[in-house]
Amino acid sequence: MAEKEMNFEEALARLEAVVKELEDGRLPLQKALELFAEGIGLSRICNRYLEDAEQRIAILTADEKGGVVLRELGPSPAAREDTNDEL
Q1: For residues 57 and 27, what is the distance between their CA atoms, to the nearest angstrom?
Q2: Number of domains into which the chain is organized
């Protein structure tokens, strides 16, 4: 049975633990490389959750008649630039 995908909080907590282990600097090279690869994967999981949340955010604005309109908020210019950069 496939392991369920982590939620954002689980992925972020594990990513923080991986970073802490790597920053410690006492790992053998092979273990450090394995943790680095895991961290990249966790970073991508977190990024997907954040992108999904960003797409769901809606802002309320008043239309010209004073009514309330629900409008989807698109990604920020910085977020669009970041997604165009490949690692």
Answers
A1: 41
A2: 1
pTM of this structure:
0.64
Q: Give SS3 for 75.
A: coil
Q: What is the tally of helices (H) and strands (E) in the chain?
A: 3, 2
Residue 35 and residue 14: Cα distance in Å, rounded?
11
Given a cut of 90, whether residue 16 has pLDDT beyond it is yes
Q: How confident is the model at residue 31 (pLDDT cuts 50, 70, 90)?
A: very high
CATH code at position 44 = 1.10.287
Tokens for 55, please give them.
């797409």
16 in a structural domain: yes
| Structural domain boundaries enclosing 18 | 8-75
What element of type H or E holds 57? none
Q: Which amino acid is at 2?
A: A
